[in-house]
Amino acid sequence: MIIHVKTPESNLRIPVPTALAGAVARIIPESSFEALRKKAPPDFQELISRKTFLTLYRACANELSMYKGLEIIRVETKRGEKVSIIL
Fold first, then answer.
1. pLDDT tens, residue by residue, 28-60
2. Closest Cα to residue 36, out of 26, 25, 47, 27?
3. N or C, which terminus of the chain has less Cβ within 10 Å?
């Protein structure tokens, strides 16, 4: 995955290995998941957990490689600043 941030003053490309997402999820403190649970609607609170995230990540990891180069987020401002995330 590549995070691309472009402003009139700079052009920044940050490569982020997709495999890193699973490792990061393991080190996120449980208190962060608890804070997200409090903000979620009651019907979805039980789904917000590290275990659920890792299960979804493992299920999707192989699929993501099939869509290499797909731009999943693109935001542009009137001043010419751009942010995009590319698989």
1. 888 888 998 998 898 988 888 888 888 888 888
2. 47
3. C
Rounded to an integer, what distance in angstroms lies between the CA atom of residue 12 and that of residue 84?
Answer: 11
Average pLDDT over residues 57-74: 84
In which order are the strands placed within the sheet that holds 11-15?
11-15, 2-6, 82-86, 71-76
Closest CA to 61 of 31, 30, 17: 17
